Amino acid sequence: MTEEIEQVAQRYARYTALGAAVIAAVWHLGYDLTVTLTGWPAYRLPWLNVAAWLVYTAVFAVALRSLARESRGPARIRELAVVTLAVDVMGIVAIEPRELLGISDWAWGSIGWIGVMLVWGRPRWRRELIAILAANAAVMLAAMALTGMLDRVAISKYLVVIVGGITMQLGYTWGCHLLRTRAEDAVLLARRLAADDALRESAQRIHTDRLRRYAAIRDVAEELLQQLADGADPGDPQVRDGCTAGAMRLRRLITEREDVPDELVSALRERIEAAERRKVMVTVPPFGDYLPCLPDGVREDLLRAPVRALDGARTRARVTVSAMSTMVSVAVVADNDDLPVSAAPVREPSGVVVTYQRQGGEVWVNSIWQNPSPGR
């Protein structure tokens, strides 16, 4: 669910950016090019006007490339903004003075859309876009002043076209920014909800595990006390062994904790409890707090040989789990007479190395996995 919402947010960012490019492209091809070609005789310097159109196209291509790749404007915005404003000046110089703000004067209206593309997705887009639009308006006003077109009608026309253009360009940019912001808020909310769900599931699992341990502690204590209440002789070796095994099991159940559930530890504890139900005295030092994530197949290979040694223990066993960020080791020492041992270390396909050693009536099995790529 979270990934789907993130994809929706990415689509908002990408397609609103490309939407700005589509508007600029349609405007430049549909209006600017048509005016340039059909109004050729009306231009004082038509080739300068064509050069302005080509320079505008080049800046558009640079901005489009950045939007397509990163959904944001290019990094060298200052230089590109200066070139874009130069296009505005070239367009004004190319036309007759009487055509200022007329049909042939296409540059002033298109500059704003290039500005929208240049500032897209940038942290200071408001300030930068307003600066570009203000500079565009200032260039036009300066041209009107130089050509003596500051009469009441010309000023009114200037205000109408400038305000209209700025409203469209700022409105589109602000509206798309609002959409992206809302989409990003939705992603953050979805992540927070997913984290809450994971925390709730973890707490429920820990609570269930605690209830299981409490029940097991009660059963062990009840069984021992019931034997003594029924007249069992504390001096009987079998009773003493039973009490010792029960005390060790009680100690393990009281000290063990599983704040961060791990499948390897859970699987190993099931086999330890199975051995304890067979009256095997199992010594288990506290497991480590941190177990790294294991690749597929490693957990099974780590547990296979130690669990076989534990399952075959006759009266006693010791289970040890050691872990670091790049290594996990599971070792079992048990009085197991039936487990076949290998004189040489056994290397599993997953990278786990299993070492056996038999001495007297005990067998020692140690399986160890080391991360071949510690940095990953």
UniProtKB/TrEMBL annotation:
Keywords: Membrane, Transmembrane, Transmembrane helix. Coiled coil: none annotated. The chain crosses the membrane at residues 12-30, 50-68, 80-97, 103-120, 129-149, 155-174. This is Histidine kinase. It comes from Actinomadura luzonensis.
